Amino acid sequence: MKSIYPTLYSLIISFIVLIISNIIAFILLQEYFINESKNHLNKNLYHYMNLIQIYHENPIKNQNLTDFLNNQNNIIFNNEYEFLFIQKKSVPVFLLNLPLKIEFFQNYLKQAPTIQVITINKKKFYIKYLYYKEYEILGGFEVSSINSKIISLLSSINILIFILILLITIMTYYISKYQLEIPFKNLFIIDEKIKQILIKLIHRQKINKEELTIEEKKFPPLIQHMLKRYINILVIFSNTANIFTRYTNEIFSYNQKEDVYKKLHFSLNELIPILHISILELNFSTNRFEKIYEYSELNIHINNEQCLPEQCIAYRTNQIQVLTENHKEAHCCFSNQILFNHSLKNKILFVIPILSISKITGIGLLIFNKDDIINLYSEQFLTFEQITEILKNHLQIYFNIAGIISHNISILESYKTMAITDPLTNLYNRRYIIETLNTLLYISERNKGELAILMIDIDNFKNFNDEYGHQIGDEVLKIVAKVLKQSIRKSDIVGRFGGEEFIIILPNTNQKYAFKVAEKVRKNIENIHYKNFGLENIPKITISIGISIFPLHGYSYDHLLRKADEALYQAKKSGKNRTMVALTSPSMSISTNISD
Q1: What is the mean pLDDT of residues 3-23?
Q2: Residues 6+ apart with CB under 8 A from 526
Q3: Which entry of 79, 144, 293, 393 is 20 to 30 Å from 490 by CA?
Q4: Tell me, what's the pLDDT at 78?
Q5: What's this model's pTM, rounded to 2 decimal places?
Q6: What are the angstrom distances between the C-alpha of 543 and each of 346, 483, 575, 576, 580?
Q7: Mean pLDDT of all residues in 519-529
């Protein structure tokens, strides 16, 4: 029922237009017919006057003026509302179609050959009076007769126009109905397809554009454009949602920062091919950026040592910076490095702050091809500025999640470090040393290798604490721990075993090399200049070292530790500040028990 309303509205509007046009036509036609009637009246009155003159000059026998005029067929008036009256000295001579008696006119006659408007019995007449010798000629027409002509003409035209409008309206209704039926059917098909897409979105299934193909010829260009736009948005949303879901499901399982950002890279690359990506996190202790991850197809390598946090607007303002080929200077020293060495022609660079729990922990640099971004979001439906804003929001979400995971990994690493390290010296603690030693002994036995243990004790440290205090003693322990760590290989393990006692594990090391390392460590401790560490008037600190070798001195960690401790006791007993190797002991079976 509602579908017929537009047709009715158009019909009503057509009638309104018709009425207005009739009023205008009536006014114009009335003026036209009055002028035509005046011309007709002038012509006939003067013609009668000429006929009378002809009759007087050449009278016809046996025929009076009335008969003569009646025989002039070419001047007889066909309009019943027009009148003609001729008289001779007030004696009527000729009368034709006179609607009113002549007495009504005589009081209004004027001696002037002009057309006058008079009113008789509330009727308006156009009349003209002429006289010739003894004859007077009076002619005229009623205004209402003109209006009747116009109304009759307009009525005929209106009937034709009405019939034409009605036919056009009926034809328009059926044509519109026929033209809209197919598009509406297609709309129902599209509605069903959209439902299927929503179901796929719920189940996180990928959607292809082919699933939403429609017969474009059935729709006008504007609707085609709108449908394509919505289809494109649905497909983009579907694919980005699926990628994002996989990204969030997998990224939380990683426990290495590099793996987290590698997953970030691969997930974003599914959306838009990435030409370059650099991830830099801030080391708050040094206030410097550290490179965590980098990949580049453009041979770009970021130097993280050349930029401070305060030099990066993206970091300071927590706002993504977008740079194109039109930018000569960037807002970050990292992006400046890129602009200095490479062109961004047909490319776009994003500098993205990495946010973790309301704290900015780093920045990311991404470079895309401009065309790849436009192809993803379809610039025919969105402006490039709108596309950039959408992409900025996507990137920020991805980087924020990666930042949170990375921050959690840092926290876990710090907790793990606290669990296995000594809080004063930052060396491994006793428990970690024993666990690691047990593992290394198993590996050494399987590989038929050797392993050395150095048990170290600071000489006379109890007396030192009594004289200088525990605060100075703690500072000395920190310095000794630092020198111990600097004196060994990266593969070696050093830890605090308790109090002023330290231990060093040397994998794949025989007795000769172990003694050499022990002497190097002893001399380095002996030669420490405490003034360099801010401590004045500190006496020389020395250490004693006991060495045990696997499998020479035992097979289990407890036997090896006991042998190293015995050797340390002999070094103390022999005068301190020296290195002693344990005596050989009989073979023992490997013990895997871990005890503190």
Answers
A1: 71
A2: 540, 541, 542, 543, 577
A3: 293
A4: 45
A5: 0.52
A6: 66, 12, 11, 7, 12
A7: 94
